[in-house]
Structures are given as C-alpha cells and as structure tokens.
Write a structure and sequence with these properties.
Layout (H helix, E strand, L loop, with lengths): L19 H6 L1 H9 L16 H12 L12 E10 L10 H4 L2 E9 L16 E7 L5 E7 L9 H11 L12 H7 L5 H9 L11 E2 L4 E4 L5 E10 L15 H10 L4 E9 L19 E14 L19 E3 L3 H23 L2 H4 L4
Antiparallel strand pairs: 1-2, 1-9, 2-3, 3-4, 5-7, 6-7, 6-10, 7-8, 8-9
Helix pairs in contact: 2-5, 3-5, 3-9, 5-6
C-alpha cells in the first residue's frame, strides 16, 4: 500500500498481456488482492505449517523486493471522508458505526500485487481498504476487493498457488504448467475462475463494487449473532462501453478529477447468511436471494498521494473490529492479520534505513 509512481530514474518493468492462459499464469498476483501474506497467527503453531515470513517471502520472490513498499497492494492512493449510517443495521449490531449519524473514515484504493510500478490495466482487480474511527475510540478496519469470491479456502492452498507462480531458478520464469496443474487439483476454485474469464479492468476506482469476500458476525446488544458478508456498491456508474485507457497511471488521475466535482459515494450492503451458508470458506459463494440490508453510505471527499497521505501508516488488518462486529472462523482472516503485520514490520524498518532523499518516494 504505497506510492503509485516509480522512484526517479527507475525503469518500469515490462508487462505481459492478454490470453486466458497468461492471466491464469499470473493469477497469484491477482488473487493477492485480498489474501496478502497468509500464515497462522504469530507463526507459533506446528513448524510444518505456514508462518508469516513464509508467505511474505514467496510474495517477494514472485513480485520482487521494493524496499519501503507494502508487499501487497503496493500501488495505491489515500482517501478520506465519512460514513453515514442508516437505521437498518442497528438491530443487528451494537457497533457505534451503525448507531451514530457519522463516523470519520480514512481509506485507500489500490491494485493487487507487490509491484508498485504496475500498469493500472494489468489486472482486473481493484481494492478498497477503510478505517472507521468511532467516537468511543474503537476502530473498524476492512479490506475489500472487486472479485466476488476467493479462489481457495485455506492459507496452505494459497501458499501452494503462490509457489506455482514462482520463477524457476534455471529459467527465471514460472513453469507454464504449474498454475493450470494447481487449479486442476483444486476444484473449489471453479467460481473464481468463472469470474476471471470475463473480468476486465475498470476505468475508475469510483465505479467498482468492493466485496468483503470473508464472512463476519454482527452482534447486537443482547448477544445475538448474525453471519454476514458486505460490499460497497458505487453510486457512480461507468459510461456504457467504457474501457480502461492505455495510460499506465489512469486510476489515481481519474479519482482526483472526479473529486474536484464533488464527493463520491458507495452504499454499504450487508448480506445476511442463512444457517446453511458456509462462513469459513471464502471460495464458496452464497446463493442468490439472501436478504440484503442497506447499512448506510460511504462518502469520500478528498484524496492524497500515499507517500504522505493519512493512509500511509495504517495496517488495514481485517480483524481490527469494534464491539458489535466479530470475525468468523474463516482461516484466511487470522492468516491475513498475521501476514499484514509481518509485511508492515518489514516495510517500515526499510523506510527507517533509507537515505532521506529516498524516503519521499516510498510508503
């Protein structure tokens, strides 16, 4: 989650394109939009299981090391505004964010992957991360993405997907058979692959719907729990036939331009699970027709470059939750939390060691 522009004098790496096979070959970068680095919390369990460093290391191997930049979502832009609650979630959650009129928000739009110089059209995913700061001091942090489901349901499977994308030391390139073989062995990825086949890069952050993908629980004042997933649905819409421009860095420019004409808005839609719906597997979609409530409106008023914006030093850990919202037992949630922490420590220590002249270009 860092600066969108390359450091002076640094060339942009060449970009690959187009066929489904190539897109599947690069899927580890795409799906990193939500996964980040996975591991078990604190990395203190069975030594044969993943640790935070394992996934951070493989992401670095696949994306390159860019000191001072986030290991995932490296290219982005800060935003700020507020959330206006409706009455619809108040019976489901005691969280202040749903029970007060307004809650301030600091957020970040970003691309997936660890390359801070990637072209905005290189992947069809966009991400939105938000920090809601309640008047009582508690925070709600959430990271959402424009894909509807995650390709696999466990940290171990994601790690194996990353390894399938890793370059072979002998050739410097990934084995072209490795990723298709991985998906052949993981039928749970079918819903995600069906989406990938038709997904196209959008022309704007402002016209995307962003999904939590993972499940959470809303808890009301008497302790009743309701499993949910949420999404931010845009008020703005793409012009019919709009396609992503060829410009490498169009997303931030578009966002800044739109904000000059007024705030941007999204509706927070919360989908309520039935008892039979899976809450521990982000690769499984819930059936159509589940009840959806409008919990309120996100209003974004301004943007800042990420190198010195308010989002720069925020770790958008999805398990930073206020009273009234709880994480599910989806193993990816605990893994994301641990991995984000490991990545945060690496990049902040690198920034501290950089010469002063270079610090302005990172974070």
């Amino acid at each position: 989650m860092v600066d969108r522009s390359p450091a002076p004098g640094r060339p942009r790496p060449p970009l690959s394109g187009g066929s489904l096979a190539l897109r599947l070959g690069g899927i580890a970068v795409i799906v990193a939009a939500i996964a980040g680095a996975f591991a078990y919390v604190n990395g203190t369990l069975d030594p044969q299981r993943l640790k935070p460093a394992d996934l951070v290391n493989v992401l670095e191997k696949n994306n390159g090391v860019h000191p001072g930049f986030r290991r995932n979502h490296s290219k982005g832009v800060c935003v700020a505004g507020y959330f206006e609650s409706s009455a619809e979630a108040r019976g489901l959650s005691s969280a202040q964010v749903f029970n007060e009129a307004r809650t301030p928000v600091v957020g970040r739009f970003a691309l997936p992957g660890g390359n801070p110089y990637a072209a905005d059209s290189s992947v069809p995913i966009r991400s939105m991360a938000l920090r809601f700061t309640q008047a009582n001091g508690q925070q709600w942090r959430t990271g959402m993405n424009s894909m509807p489901v995650f390709p696999v349901g466990t940290p171990e499977a994601f790690y194996q997907l990353q390894k399938a994308q890793s370059p072979d030391p002998a050739t410097g390139k990934p084995d072209p058979k490795a990723v298709p073989a991985f998906f052949g062995a993981h039928p749970e990825a079918a819903p995600f692959l069906a989406w990938v086949k038709t997904a196209k890069p959008s022309a704007s952050y402002a016209t995307e719907t962003y999904n939590s993908v993972n499940a959470f629980y809303l808890v009301n004042s008497v302790g009743q729990r309701q499993a949910v997933r949420w999404s931010m649905a845009p008020v703005a819409q793409d012009v019919a036939g709009a396609v992503a421009p060829a410009d490498t860095d169009f997303l931030e420019k578009d966002l800044v331009q739109r904000l000059t004409t007024g705030p941007l808005r999204w509706q927070l839609n919360i989908t309520l699970a039935d008892p039979s719906d899976p809450v521990n597997d982000a690769s499984k979609p819930w059936p159509e027709g589940r009840k959806v409530i409008n919990a309120g409106t996100l209003v974004l008023q301004s943007s800042q470059a990420q190198n010195d914006g308010a989002c720069r030093d925020i770790n958008y850990d999805p398990l930073v939750l206020p009273s009234g919202i709880e994480g599910s037992d989806d193993p990816l949630l605990a893994a994301r939390s641990a991995g984000y922490a490991a990545s945060y420590l690496r990049r902040t220590s690198e920034v501290n060691q950089l010469p002063a002249a270079k610090k302005e270009s990172v974070q």
